[in-house]
Amino acid sequence: MQFTTSILALVSAFALTASAAPTSQSLNPNIIPRANAKLNQYNNADCKDNSGGNAPTYHASPPARACYNIDSTTMSFYFGLGPLTQTWVYSEAGCVGQSVNLGGNGGCQAVEANFSDRFGTIRSIMMD
After folding, report:
1. Mean pLDDT over all residues of the chain?
2. Which of these, 1, 35, 86, 106, is most buried using a 10 Å CB contact count?
3. Residue 49 carries which DSSP code?
4. In CATH, what number does 35-127 get?
């Protein structure tokens, strides 16, 4: 009897553990997980190419803490983030100078941001 009770307890514990395992699909359809960050640069201010599509001029999948300089012909960029990621933009190339945290939501951002008198144009970006 005690052996049977122990086996049942062990099987129940295993079943609870297996049912709590994460699934590959998000429970919230509004949250779409991304494995890697995404950085697309565009020649137009609305994250579109010259024909109105979304083909980027430059594309990167930046790892965390890598600095990317914005090309001088870029007018806007689209950034998509991996889990628990923040995006910082800088007023100078090389991720130096004034900085602003764009947050963790991602989206389209114009290069001419005019965050302040001393920070008008985004010159570099880092995802952290």
Report:
1. 79
2. 106
3. -
4. 2.60.20.10
pLDDT for 118 equals 86
- For tokens 């086996």, name the residue: 7
For 54-71, b/e burial (b = at least 16 CB within 10 A) is eebbeebebeeeeebebe
CA–CA separation, 128 and 125 (whole Å):
10
State the pLDDT confidence band at 41, using cuts at 50, 70 and 90. Answer: very high
CB-side neighbour CA atoms (13 Å) of 65: 0
What predicted TM-score, i.e. pTM, was given to this entire model? 0.69
Spans of all domains in the chain: 35-127
Task: Tell me the average pLDDT across 76-86.
Answer: 84
The structure tokens listed for 61 are: 């999948």
- How many residues appear in the chain? 128
Task: Kindly state the tokens that stand for 28.
Answer: 């919230």
How buried is residue 121: exposed, middle or buried, by Cβ count under 10 Å (0-12/13-18/19+)? middle
**Mean pLDDT on 3-22:** 50
| Contact in structure between 121 and 113 (CB atoms under 8 Å) | yes
3-class state of residue 112 by DSSP = strand
Cα 95 to the center of its chain, rounded Å: 17
